[in-house]
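Q: My collaborator sent me two sequences in one message, no labels, and asked for predicted structures for both. Can we handle them in order? The first one she listed is below.
A: Yes, handling them in the order given. First sequence, followed by its structure tokens:
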Amino acid sequence: MDLLNKHKILKLYFILLHIVFLIVFVKSGFLFQVKSSFFLSTKEDTKTQFYQDMLIYHKRVDRNVNKGAILFFGDSFIQSLAVASVSPDAYNFGIGHDTSNDLFNRLQMYESISKAKIIVVLIGINDYKFRENGDILLNYDRIIGAIPRDKMVILNAVFPVDESITKGIKNNNRFNKKIRELNNKSRQLCKTYENVYFNDISNLVIDLSGNLSHKYHEGDGVHLSKEGYKIWINSLKKVIHSFPPKDERSL
């Protein structure tokens, strides 16, 4: 075998080796783990085993909800919220990575909504992987519209992020601007409903640059720390205990 043929075989060997390595690399889930290290989901997660397991668990809880309960719906911010610290009548129906689209689609399965007194919602941060503010607002309107008008609804503002930390986000330096725009339009949307209150703690958790303060996130620039949750819990307790607010509704 001449030197030229040996060189071709060696080149082909390295190409095949790289292909095998790439297949193993992708199947190992490493890329998914890297993407998941940021707060945005890589896809809308209704088909994942985790999502389906959570829905099964929610159906079991849903059957045992008491009349006059306070129901919490949303993504990981809600799922990680100790709702009993807000009210002893609270039930947590949050699912990590959830989006406004998926929340609207799963609302119909909760029979307990008909027995509830107050519905608390926080959703939207994961939507930015799939849609812009206009479509998120449409989903907010659909979610609110799917809840009976005799129920009081607390729609929470999307929390700001710490742009100095969340380097994995596309257009990171403009992300809080998009969130502020969404929250401003959400506030206006809530004013069109008599039974909806817009709860915004943004000004309580930001630093001088407008970012989510280091003190109030876990270190990832997104998820609330214990101190951050404390502020949110106190805010929710204040709103719920004086519900419906007379002078501060949708402010």
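Q: And the one she listed second?
A: Here it is, processed independently of the first:
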Amino acid sequence: MLKSRGLLLAFSVLLGASLAAPAHAQFSDSYKFLEAVRKKEGQEVTDKLAEPGTTIINTRDITSGETALHIVTGRRDLTWMSFLIGKGANVNVRDAKGITPLVQATNLGFLEGVDLLIAQKARVDESNNAGETPLITAVHNRNTQLMRMLLKAGANPDRADNSGRSARDYALLEGSNSPMINEILNSAKAKNPLGQTRQSYGPSL
């Protein structure tokens, strides 16, 4: 009786291990890759990316949803950002909170990172799960230099977050002559220097 129970227990352990193995194998490569990125192990990362048919460049941390590009953006590492983007990293990827590398770089005040991501076609109006765009983040941080960069790249100052407020609304909270609202107004003037309105056709009523 004891022998049969022992065999049954051993069988259960082996069965559990066999079922868990595929999941473990699935996550182990991703974990090792992201850890190599965190530790700046260039050769290890290069070897992983060189494997035929790999899509590991955009793999996500199972807890935070961060990708390698999030990790290197978070440490303000322009060299690694350029390297990963060159290897196919998605500049518009979102983590578990919906944060893109551009939102992340904006929140850090990382000018060079924002400039690189914009140049690599990052969507300037891509918001996080709260609806906060990079421009709204820049306004919250009172970073007029980043606001200027984002507005020049086409960021919409009237796109609202989940609370219904836009970058323009938040800028106006600082006063009608605040540096933030002036950046938005100056951007509009730069795009339409003569104050021209679009020509309309048809009768005027």
